[in-house]
Amino acid sequence: MRKTLSATLLVAALWGSGVAAQAPFFQVDGVRQGDTLNVRSGPGANFQDIGDLAPGQVVRVLGYNANGKWAQVRYRGQNAWVSARFLKVTQGGTSGSGTLGTFFVKGIKANDADGGLVVRAGAGKGFARLGVLSNGTGVNVVQRSPGGKWAMINFGNGVGWVSTAYLGQQKPKPAPSQNSLVAPDGGPLPAIFEVTGVSAGDRLNFRDAPRASGNLLGRFPPGARIEVLSMGTPKWAYVTNGEVAGYVHVRYLTRASAGGNTGQGGVSGTSTPNGFPLGIVCQGTEPFWSFEIREDRSVHYNQLAGGVQPPASLVQTTPSAGGSFPYQFAATPYSGVLRLEQCSDGMSDIVYPMSVLISDPTLAGGYPTLNGCCQVQD
Hints:
Layout: H1 5-17, E1 25-28, E2 37-40, E3 49-53, E4 58-64, E5 70-75, E6 78-83, E7 87-89, E8 93-95, E9 98-105, E10 117-120, E11 129-133, E12 138-144, E13 150-155, E14 158-163, E15 167-168, E16 191-195, E17 204-207, E18 216-220, E19 225-231, E20 236-240, E21 245-249, E22 253-255, E23 280-284, E24 289-293, E25 298-303, E26 307-308, E27 312-313, E28 316-318, E29 327-331, E30 334-344, E31 351-359, E32 369-376
Antiparallel strand pairs: 1-4, 1-7, 2-3, 4-5, 5-6, 8-9, 9-12, 9-15, 10-11, 12-13, 13-14, 16-19, 16-22, 17-18, 19-20, 20-21, 23-24, 23-32, 24-25, 25-26, 25-27, 28-29, 29-30, 30-31, 31-32
């Protein structure tokens, strides 16, 4: 996705307030009674009127024009523009149709026939199936159906609907402290580990809480390579299986080397002295791109349209006030923000452990920005 420089500043402000990760969607608000919000082909009242948005309708903002007065949205399969003054952030709170904000999937039985909580194209079982969500998956509810039995959630690059019977509200997990980003072996996190010490024919249990009584999310075979995001407790690691995050006991994990063997030499998951992770790969769409920060601090950027760009070097990694994520980084001419949070590419079921916002001045249109997801290179 492309955003202008002003969008970068707005997104940074939202991140600082804790809103952006929970409320990427905006709601039409402030139009006169009986009126609608004009959708135009460009950022200005002089551009062609191509449609309308009704009061209360929820849209995803892709970016803003240079003065921040016009917001770019997706409308009927194309990029379009609306006046930003008539948009408000959808965030946690209450409305006449129920509670909005962050919820977590719960109550899905083991071996459920649907494979999890079904996400549908509309508020009812008769609508098309878009995907499924596992127990413990966090979702952002942006709207409720009349009666409150169905919730509209952010899903992929759009929205979907789920039954509220399987949603529970709880406090979001706090941002990991610096200590939680240090593994028991003293190395940095996130990083790739291998399952070791498990008996032949046995599996390592993957649970939804850092304790042996936690609900079983799955099982990892011996030798499986999994990504450890942080430490949940001194004995339990917070990991992802590519679809959902949960916990495994650290007794059965050994840091993996970049070459696939375990050990301490040449390990993956190295970091700068202030904890910024090296050896990570980020990617995104609209346009398709990849951004790799290698362990030697070299940066390799590839655009679908522009091809492979000249290598750059990581010259700045500034942590937040807490000494950890989110990090601001720079690799001239690029800069960005790296956050430790679950991220979806909107095209697959993969759950990435980090999100990134990159400012690329080489793209057309001033200082466009790119949103994407990152993981430690395996």
